[in-house]
Amino acid sequence: MSDMLVALYHLPEQESGLKKLEESSIVIRRAIAPEKQVVLDWVKSHFSQPWVDECDVAFARQPVTCYIALEHGKMIGFACYEATCRNFFGPTGVSQEARGKGVGTALLLACMHAMKTDGYAYAIIGSAGPVDFYAKTLGAVKIENSTTGIYKGMLRAD
Q: Rounded to two decimals, what is the model's pTM?
């Protein structure tokens, strides 16, 4: 999968989407340090160990660079930035049951707006999975010759 580039100075607004989710009892917010183990356990139970490892790094940053989605106080999704590289978005994931509610979009926008606030003009989506989603939502474009990118030669568990 290729990396993608996002111009942070052309981001869609996020407030209306957040308000709509809140009306459905879904809250998007930055995680805090005491939640680290709960978040990492959730990511491990729904996704993969490499994503747990990246999420762990997001908790080492100050402020934490992991956003979480909660429905009635229970975790349903997460998104991180600056976990593998500075200025990189990801990993991100939403539980099967919560997909299609706009949670992924809200988490993505929360991270992108935070990166813009941190002073970046552009963001990189590393090894972007849903290319069409990122292109439609953010105007993201593929970065030529970026397939495998930073992950080339990465050690993997057998």
A: 0.94
What domains can be seen in the chain, in order of their start residue?
4-148 (3.40.630.30)
Distance CA 88, CA 116 (A): 12
Supply φ then ψ for residue 29, to 5 degrees. Answer: -155, 165
Say what percent of the chain tops pLDDT 70: 99
CA gap 52, 108 in Å, rounded: 18
Query: Residues in the chain with pLDDT < 70?
Result: 158
Contact 78, 95 (CB under 8 A): no
Q: DSSP of the chain, one letter per residue?
A: ---EEEEGGGPPP-HHHHHHHHHTTEEEEE--GGGHHHHHHHHHHHS-HHHHHHHHHHHHSSS--EEEEEETTEEEEEEEESSSSTTEEEEEEE-GGGTTSSHHHHHHHHHHHHHHHTT-SEEEETT-S-HHHHHHHH--EEPTT-SSGGGTT-----
Residue 156 confidence (pLDDT): 81
The residue type of 34 is P
Cα–Cα distance, 158 to 156 (Å, whole number) = 6
